[in-house]
Design brief:
Blueprint lengths: L1 E4 L4 E4 L14 H4 L8 H7 L4 E2 L3 E3 L2 E10 L7 E8 H13 L4 E6 L23 H7 L10 E2 L5 E9 L4 E8 L3
Length: 179
């Protein structure tokens, strides 16, 4: 987590904070602040809006950059920027849902799986565009079809999906047909 002043100079930097069940990271991308003043993760918050970066894969998992303005939205004093591991952020929610027999997973705007479940053979980074629910979501439409289909775990399911515009992610929930 890094706090920058309005001139994009780092004021405070905390290496590897452990948040929720996330994986602490230390990588070159996290600490590359060159040309920060012209990058969206700084420019967008300096205009008073939150920034959610495109997810990217690394050996430790899937990550995205979150940056928020500090101070009044009309004239921010600086930016707080953090790199967030998707799996750590999502793991607690996913566990509660899966205990009830459902499967919950995230996709990016291209239809790539952002979080892997222990109940599936799919890994993070797998392209899922062969699934109609995924194709519907990446077309920026919510899924409201009541038909059953073969879900991510290979069984017949009913699914529900919503596309989150601010993150450019889809959230899909699948419940086995036999429940």
């Amino acid at each position: 987590i890094t706090l920058f002043d309005r001139d994009s100079l780092p004021l405070i930097h905390i290496d590897n904070p452990t948040v929720s069940a996330g994986t602490p990271i230390d990588n070159d991308r996290e600490h590359d602040f060159s040309n920060l003043a012209s990058r969206p993760e700084f420019v967008v918050p300096m205009h008073g809006r939150n920034y959610f970066g495109t997810p990217y894969r690394q050996e430790e998992g899937t990550f995205f950059v979150l940056a928020i303005p500090i101070g009044p939205s009309t004239s921010p004093l600086g930016v707080m920027r953090a790199t967030v591991e998707v799996g750590g952020l999502w793991r607690d929610v996913e566990k509660q849902i899966e205990e009830r027999g459902a499967l919950l997973y995230l996709i990016d705007s291209r239809g790539v799986l952002l979080n892997a479940s222990e109940r599936t053979e799919e890994t993070e980074g797998t392209l899922l565009t062969e699934n109609s629910i995924v194709r519907t979501l990446i077309a920026r439409n919510d899924w409201s079809n009541n038909d059953e289909y073969v879900g991510l775990h290979g069984k017949k399911v009913f699914g529900n999906g919503i596309f989150l515009d601010k993150l450019a992610w889809g959230v899909i929930s699948e419940v086995p047909v036999n429940q």
